[in-house]
Design a protein that fits this description.
2 copies of one chain form a homodimer. The first copy, chain A, is an alpha/beta fold. Chain A is 46% helix and 12% strand. The first copy, chain A, is globular and about 60 Å long.
Chain lengths: 366, 366
């Protein structure tokens, strides 16, 4: 496949820890319900999965935030649970509720029936990737993604979101053999899935370990981190001569940052509980850092949003401006943007990140 | 007031970082729905608040787990939200749901109407403390408690539990002046409340910062930690010649352990995400540590519960056995026990903690 040359490479350069004229910014869930144009498209699509499984709709909503804001990357519009859906668990989204699986994986028979799904069942995702990459026409790079093996396992066993993770942790502690089996299959499936996204046109891939932070110290390393590493070990490192940026985001994972520093990836995402300056001191010598504004700050008045965005940029500290590699920051939220966010506040945020981060490069002490 | 002399002082000695013959253990929410005898008493009381506001019922349920298990401390049966209820916000518990306030604090007028409540409105709590302490008859010490100023503010603004803390964080970022005003009042109210519990017979007091961990780095220090410190500064340090142990537990707070190490308290509680060995290295020289088994481990078979309890004890490491002060561990869960816990599994846990921690004192390398 051949796509238009990239016009804005700040995000990919930052992933590779190369200097950039400003700090690149994109937002988790940037194509979403806070945008009226997204709500219009979703209404036409009829449902969330109607949106996600139709490449034209998926392309349309992926590009919507780029038409409003000077974002430095696009991210595939999809869901983290497409892989277990392709395993036959029956994903659905009831209105006003989260995702739900018709056939949760709760006993040995269900675990033994699991297998890496035929990637043809996920063709709609890869078609969307190619369609979006084509429609982007080189404006910004495209990020593909998947849930982490552990995060997928949480949903697969619980059957839905959970407050206490009782079912999945009961399996983990009572039948660790079954949990390891699920995680092996998930890891191999996620790797195949992300590689197919890369072949379809994704220039970076992100693993969302949304629920890694609910695990105990020790269990996190054994049941989440090890399987994220198993995915990374199988990922394509380049495609058609271009390096592929690999990002890992563990919500609530800042406690284990030193251990995550050993992952074979380019970027680690951090939520707002982390101090970017400390994270930089710990792992900034080998990994780019992505994050970490609390999305609730977007409910504050513009002056406060500006002040808090500047605080995040300053907490990372002076940008590297040399010709080699160095500490590198990609601005993002510490979690997906809320559906209640006023769209004009996102404009304030994106513009502030660009303006202040340019100033930081001019005046290193800003 | 005069109470029977204390027979088991392991918990209070451990709080003061003095050596003990075994690692003391108690469990957050140890008097609760997982016990059939608790469910019987609650049925007689008619409701949760019916239980909490009647000193005889509160005494009965507080002592129930002590009759089953060799726990080393009792904790007042009450709720963390009694203080805002006494402020007039109208606390209720709908069946199968969490707490709810009839009059949440959402605007300037509501904030300006707040005041430290007359402690006479909380007399039922202090009466329960005295009744429980009397009924304990010196078996184990009694812990009193309150929610932290920030955690109370979360419920007061949200009006109930929350997934995203949108309302309280919107106030925090949009009107920090109002948030500081709420927190000042809460801190002074919590201090008065805990001091009255101490006067009524509580031998230790614990501040539950259940929602401190949802704050961004920087915001945690300004809106949670500073007001916990404001409570501690006002607390009685001793009562009738006996030192009062002061415990602070921030769920999700292990990232800020070094800063919490500066609090004027005796014990810091940790959830299961923390590594006790690292925590000990960081602050074990000045604070006792309390925690941190994932309560979901109690759903596993007994052999696994034993193994995981031993893992927690070993992660803290060799107990101090000298005559002065030294690193000190109080075993607990990292969160309240689940209502679905099999009661016989708690027996396995308590017995394992006692047995293995005695062995650790005999064989320092166990």
């Amino acid at each position: 496949m051949s796509f238009a040359p990239l016009q804005n490479d700040t995000f990919l350069r930052a992933c590779r820890r190369l200097s950039t004229p400003h700090t690149p910014v994109w937002l988790m869930r940037q194509a979403g319900r806070y945008l009226p144009e997204y709500r219009d498209t979703r209404a036409r699509a009829g449902s969330f999965m109607g949106l996600a499984t139709n490449k034209d709709f998926a392309t349309e909503v992926t590009l919507q935030p780029l038409d409003r804001y000077a974002l430095d990357a696009a991210i595939l519009f999809s869901d983290i649970l497409t892989v277990p859906d392709a395993m036959g668990l029956g994903l659905s989204f009831a209105l006003g509720e989260g995702p739900r699986f018709a056939k949760p994986v709760r006993d040995e028979a269900a675990v033994m029936a699991l297998a890496v799904p035929d990637m043809e069942k996920l063709r709609y995702v890869f078609d969307a990737v190619t369609s979006i990459r084509t429609a982007l026409n080189g404006r910004v790079p495209l990020i593909g993604f998947s849930g982490s093996p552990w995060t997928l396992a949480c949903y697969m066993v619980e059957g839905a979101g959970s407050d206490d993770y009782r079912l999945v942790k009961t399996m983990l502690y009572s039948r660790p053999d079954l949990m390891h089996r699920i995680l092996e299959i998930n890891a191999d499936a996620v790797a195949a899935y992300l590689n197919a996204q890369i072949e379809a046109g994704a220039q970076a891939v992100m693993i969302f370990d949304s629920w890694g932070g609910v695990l105990a110290d020790g269990a996190f390393q054994e049941f989440s981190l090890a399987y994220t590493a198993r995915v990374l070990a199988q990922l394509k490192r380049e495609h058609e001569g271009e390096p592929i940026a690999r990002i890992v985001f563990t919500k609530g994972g800042a406690l284990w940052l030193d251990e995550m520093g050993g992952l074979d990836c380019d970027v680690l995402g951090l939520d707002w509980t982390a101090n970017l300056g400390r994270a930089r001191a710990l792992i900034g010598g080998t990994k780019a850092l992505q994050g970490n504004l609390d999305p609730n700050i977007l409910f504050a008045p513009p002056a406060r949003i500006e002040a808090e965005a500047i605080k995040v940029l300053n907490s990372f500290g002076a940008p590297h401006t040399g010709t080699g590699t160095g500490p590198s920051h990609i601005f993002n939220l510490g979690h997906g943007i809320s559906q209640h966010t006023p769209p004009e506040h996102v404009q304030v945020l994106v513009d502030t990140v660009h303006r202040h981060s340019k100033r930081m490069r001019e005046l290193p002490s800003a």
